[in-house]
Amino acid sequence: MAQRTINSPGVEIRESDLSFTTPAPAGTNIYVTGFAQQGPIDEVLLITTKQELVQIYGPPTNAAEKYFHYTLSELLNSPATVYAGRLPYGTGPGDGFGSKYSALAYPVQAFKPGRAHNSPSTLSQSSSAVYVIGHPVHFELTETQYLGILDGSGYTWADTASLNANSIDTVANIGKAGIIVLNKTQLANNAQFEGTYVGLLNNTQNPATAFNSITAVEAVVAEGDSDGRTFSFTTLPDNTLTFDLTSSETDGSGQSISRVMENLTDYDLDSQAFSDYLQFGVFKLRKSIYANEATKLDYVLTDIVTGSVTANRKQLNPKGGADVSAFIENASDNSQNIKVLVNDNISGRLTGNTGLNDQGSSLHAIQTLDTLNQLFLSAVPVPGATAFSTTNKLFPLGQFTNQKVTDKLLGNIPNKLERSLDNIKNDEVYNIDVVVEAGLGTIHAVSNAAGVDYYDDEDYGTSVSAAVEGLRTPNDLSVASAITLKNDYTTIFNKFEKFVKPPYEGGDRGDCIFVADPIRQIVIKGRNTKPLSDKTKNFQTEIYWPIRHQFENENTSYAAVYGNWMAVADSYSGKQCWVPSSGFAAAAMARNDAVAFPWFAPAGFTRGLVSFANDIAVNPNQKQRDELYKANINPIAQFPGSGIVIFGQKTLQKKPSAFDRINVRRLFLSLERPTKQLARQFVFEQNSEFTRTRLVNALTPLFERAKNNEGLFDYLIVCDERNNTPAVIDANELVVDIYLKPTRTAEFILVNFYATRTDANFQELVGG
Question: Are residues 524 and 386 in the same domain?
Fold first, then answer.
């Protein structure tokens, strides 16, 4: 039995392909990422109308933006639920990123019960103590400094600290802090106050009598000094924000950012047992997407980190077995944005102390300093209290930059794409059925081949032409530029493939399919020239071999390619423009799902008609379609009286099996997601015959529905003592084996005509 990949309670889906030949889905959710002239970057937005598309992202101004815009536009012509993510312009990782790392260093003091509040103790405490966190210091870091803090080689943790943040005056003295929050990436905060901010609270604020854990937003307005320490901050006026900072506990409609902060977890931390816990919320502030508020800042919660400041603190393993770490440093390892470090003298990392007393309560408490408590309502001020402000604010995480990206440079597209896909990686937040390339592979490969950091599909120079011509060979590739062009495209393809593949195959999701595009310059030359318009050119050399070479190493049932590009009317330039076919193919899938089911083929004259396209780059005949199909490339053809039709439904899986067809791949995906949702309800139930029977009974209607609607010939669900042996049960596992006989499509219809004698008996002729 294959080893599971999940390590926390949940449901994992696996497949076994036994088909070698030698709840109901609700809509079709499609994700598109690409370049636009405006709008939020590195965010997932639900786009519902073309008006909204233009309002948020603006009209397209160049070829790369047109691919993104018209792919979204075609999807909006379909019943699909459309999600979009804008890639940032700019060199390297792009706008929103700088050249440095950064950190927030929070000073901490320790106070022992019974001692005067003006008599702080050392940080290392063997008995009960209260740690109080003060206003953080902001540092900009070189990569060397960042790595030195991360691995502990660049500083030494101090056993004394002061709530007066001035004591943390250099990077070398950052060990005087009690808590350090590192910016894992080179995120930047700009002069318009857009960027990443961090909020902090302790367990007593979850929830409070009023939602007031965040009362201000503090922004950085200048770069750090020679040692990286930042001194220039400003508090943003409330009228520059589209959201409320605080709200009353009785205001049911008030969704303040404090309310968000105080409900970061779905379990209640408000007890003494969690007094050593902290919660960090990471927020992205950016200009509002709404036109009437375009000068104000909106927020998006991007990350949550919760855990104990005690290194050896354990919590119950929800899967059973040995307890697991509750340490916040370990919790932050799963964050894409921040790494939290705790002073060794607070965490007790070196002592092995569990952090709990005999009653199971936290030995130490950690509290943030705010205007309400001033150290728990004490009349005695904290030493140096006038030298710092309180912690009930959002603090800037990223380095400051006043650089505004005006040049539409592409930068590192693979890196930007990976970040965009990371935003929708969580399948418990986003249901995604289809991801489309929208020409990104062409943009990346062709701009690299041209040696430029921009993309122009009408004038791309002789170097690109030479690379494309190098693909037009029936032999193995030998032209260096052609090999590089193919490899650059493959870099983009691999990012998408990793995203759609299941975790047990090294992927991220395993519940969606990717639609790829051939390189534009294969099928369209210059602005509007079709290679086959030249009658001296032949289909095999000009179209078949270059597309085959482009995808010859791709072998996956989670991706498909359609060998064409589509022409649409560009309402902004008044010209016809060529756009990728991936959006049109995904729109056909959405229309298919609306009138039938995902296990029906999104192809043919019934469910494969292409809407809103004026022309296609290549119109293959039957023989040419045969060649493409044998190479797992789905043809799109134009038929007189019928229009443009998708005439194939193969995946890129080279091995002949049920999974080399899109309808079977999508059949499995459409059944796996509701199976996971249903099975999740049985997590933590007793692993007994009764539970297993209930689970089978819950799953059966799902598969009966597929069978009754032509998705399955038959199925078998096994969940009993045969696959749930004592060893399996003792491992806290429950195994369900589901065997499916998927329905195949009639793609090759053979009609035989027979001429017979007048006195022939038809029943005898057919063998009846």
Answer: no
Taking the whole predicted model, whether its pTM rises above 0.85 is answered as no
- Please check whether residues 52 and 135 belong to one and the same domain: no
Q: Is residue 755 in a domain?
A: no
Take residue 180 and report the two structure tokens written for it: 């350090």
Q: Following DSSP, what letter does each residue of 296-316 receive, concatenated?
A: SEEEEEEEEEEEES-TT-EE-
Verify that 74 and 107 share a domain, yes or no.
Answer: no
Report yes or no: 53 and 19 within 8 Å, Cβ to Cβ: no
604 and 622 in a single domain? The answer is yes
Instruction: Confirm whether 763 is domain-assigned.
Output: no
* Beta-bridge mates of residue 180: 105, 341
Output the CA–CA distances (angstroms, integers) from residue 680 to 9, 266, 394, 674, 715, in the order listed.
9, 17, 36, 10, 21
CB 230 within 8 Å of CB 400: yes
| Alpha helices, DSSP H, located in 177-307 | 257-261
Contact present, 495 and 418 (Cβ < 8 Å) = yes
Q: Which residues lie below 8 Å from residue 493, measured CB to CB, with a gap of 6+?
A: 437, 441, 516, 554, 559
What is the rounded CA–CA span in Å between residue 405 and residue 424?
25
Asked whether residue 671 is domain-assigned, the answer is: no
Q: For 542, which DSSP code?
A: I
State how far the alpha carbon of 280 is from the alpha carbons of 156, 179, 209, in Å. 24, 12, 20
User: Which tokens is 310 given?
Assistant: 């005690």
Predicted local confidence at residue 526, as pLDDT: 84
Select from 401, 425, 458 the last residue of a domain: 401
Q: Are 570 and 590 in contact (CB under 8 A)?
A: no
- CATH classification of the domain holding 436: 3.40.50.11780
- CA–CA dist 24, 702 (Å, integer): 7
Are residues 56 and 96 in contact, defined by beta-carbon separation less than 8 angstroms? no
Can you spell out the DSSP letters for 719-755? -STTTS-HHHHHTT----EEEEEEPPP----------
Tokens 């498909």 belong to which residue?
Answer: 560
Three-class secondary structure of residue 278 per DSSP: strand
Q: Residue 121 in contact with residue 115, Cβ under 8 Å?
A: yes
**At which residue do the structure tokens 């099996």 appear?**
657
* Rounded-to-integer distance, Cα 85 and Cα 216, Å: 29
Give dist(CA 246, CA 363) in Å, integer. Answer: 31
Residue 458's identity, in one-letter code, is E
Domain final position from 655, 672, 707: 655
Instruction: Give the type of residue at 172.
Output: A
The answer to whether 455 and 440 are in contact (CB under 8 A) is no
How many structural domains comprise the chain? 2
In a domain, 121, yes or no: yes
Q: Give the three-class secondary structure for 330.
A: helix
Same domain, 107 and 87: no
Give whole-number Cα distances, 642 to 283, 392, 604, 622, 637, in Å.
51, 65, 10, 16, 10
Task: Clarify whether residues 323 and 242 are in a common domain.
Answer: yes
- Residue 751 CA to residue 159 CA, distance in Å, equals 87
Q: Residues 117, 169: one domain?
A: yes
Kindly state the greatest CA–CA separation across the chain. 117
Q: Which residues of the chain have pLDDT under 50?
A: 20-25, 116, 372, 374-388
Rounded Cα distance between 675 and 699, Å, is 7
How much is the pLDDT for 437? Answer: 98
Distance CA 158, CA 169 (A): 14
Q: Which helix (H) or strand (E) holds 66?
A: helix 63-76
Tell me, what's the pLDDT at 359? 64
408: which residues sit within 8 A by CB, 6+ positions away? 35, 37, 61, 62, 64, 89, 454
Read off the amino acid at residue 68.
F
Q: What is the pLDDT of residue 467?
A: 96
Where in the sequence is the domain holding 396, given as residue range(s)? 101-401
Is the peptide bond prior to 207 cis by the omega test (within 30 degrees of 0)?
A: yes
Beta bridge partners of 738: 717
Cβ–Cβ < 8 Å for 39, 86? yes
Of 158, 173, 183, nearest to 104 by C-alpha is 183
Residue 371: its pLDDT value, please?
Answer: 52
Task: Identify whether residues 163 and 311 lie together within a single domain.
Answer: yes
